[in-house]
User: Fold this.
Amino acid sequence: MSGWQDDKAWSDRFIPNMKAILGWCLFAEADLAEDQLRNTDLIVFQARAFRVGCRVRRHEFLAKYPNDITIRASRPGADTEVDKMLSGWGDFFLYGFSDEAERRLKKWVLCDLAELRKFFVGHMRQHEGALPGQIRANGDGSSEFLVLSQDQLPAAVRFKTSDDLARERAMTFAQPAHPADITAYPATRSPGSPPCPPTTYPP
Assistant:
C-alpha cells in the first residue's frame, strides 16, 4: 500500500470512537422544561446532513504538540484540506491524538469550519493573502501541512473539546466507571413519564 493508504487504514480503526465523540458533541439531553412542555427528550444541534473531516495523529506527538492543529496545505496534483475548506466544503473538523493502545482518541478538538473559515479570511485580508500559522513539510517530503496553535484561534472555532467532555464527566460522576461503560440518567423526570434514553459518553 502507498503511504496514504497506510495512514488511512491506521486512522480508520478510530472511526467507532470518533462516531461516539460526534454523537456526544451534536446531541444534548433535554432539560426538564423541554421534557414537560415540548415533549422533547433529546436535542439535535444539527438538523441536516453535515460533513466532518477527521485527522488522527499518533500518540508520540501528543507530548510534543498538544495544542497544535495541522491541516494539509499542499500536495502535488491534488486539492488539499485547506483548499477544500476555503472553497466552503465541510462543516466540522475533528482533530485528535490517539491513546497509547491506538484504540481511542486521548485528546481531541472538534472545530467549527464556518468559524475557522471566517478566521482564515480575516487573516488573509489583513496579511496580503498569507495563511495564518506556519507551513511544515511532511516527513517524507510528499506534502506540506499548515500548523495552527489552538491558542491563536477564536474561541468559537473550538466547538467541543476532550476537556469539555472530561469536565462534564467529572460533574456527573463522583467515581466514574470505565469511560466505555458510562451512562447517565437525568436526576428528575416529570411524574409518570417514561425514562429518557441515557446520555452515553464516548470512550
